[in-house]
Protein: Secreted protein
Organism: Belliella pelovolcani
Amino acid sequence: MNKLTTVLITLLFLSFHAYPQRDQAPQGPGSLAFWENLSKLCGKSFEGEMLNASENDQFYGKKLVMHVRTCEDGKITIPFHVGDDHSRTWVLTMEEGNVIKLKHDHRHEDGSEDRVTQYGGISSNTGMARLQFFPADQETTDLIPYAATNIWWITLDDTTFSYNLRRINNDSSINVKFDLTREVETPPTPWGWED
């Protein structure tokens, strides 16, 4: 057997075993596996870092902590603490058809809602167990017209959770990566929420 044949057989073998075959695909929609894996983090807090922060960024130089605070039937809340600012909470809800909705709940320190709140999107399909996309919904477009092209996405695996935002036709993005291998102290109750 010549070298070329050996290389081709090796590549064929590796490609066959590196990717699951169709009949080995996970059963059920990816959104349910994603939801189940995220629910396993309930009650835990993790520190994160901006992957592309500049000195002009509002998150620059601040401690970033996510806390998977509640996991109710069909709803998961994740406060995102930025230093001493406890105004942000990501709210994920499971919609009919097994798609996930992401909303951003913004509050003032007195608990009242910010003028810009409840924006986000609904996944366009059931997505994948480790990745969910959320294109801006109509409520977001009505509230913040320039955010009509926003796409948020969350990745989740055994060691990291990432929150990401990209606006189509704009080079800027937000990418925050959290280390799931090390729990941190639970932050204070987010503004406007009760224990």
Remarks:
- Residues 15 and 21 are 10 Å apart (CA to CA).
- The longest strand covers residues 85-95.
- The chain has three helices and eleven strands.
